[in-house]
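Sample intake sheet
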Amino acid sequence: MTCPPHHFIVDTPNGPTSKGKCKRCHTTRVFANTMHESRLIGVPKTDAAKAAIRASHQAARDARAEKDANAEHAAGAYLET
């Protein structure tokens, strides 16, 4: 059987990276266990991966904004009583 496409079997996450081995040709590769880490070790990103990173960052911004709004509301309610 020829590669690519590779079909990697990736070790269980334990730290920032995990080793993967192609079940067809036995090529090895290091995979990032988080999207953030993938930027640090230079793993090529597909358009889908880039979109996932953007969505993750937007979700984090939305969560922070909601947390801040809730804190402001709670502080206002405390001051009104």
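Comment: The first strand starts at residue 8 and ends at 10. The chain has two domains: 1-44, 45-81.
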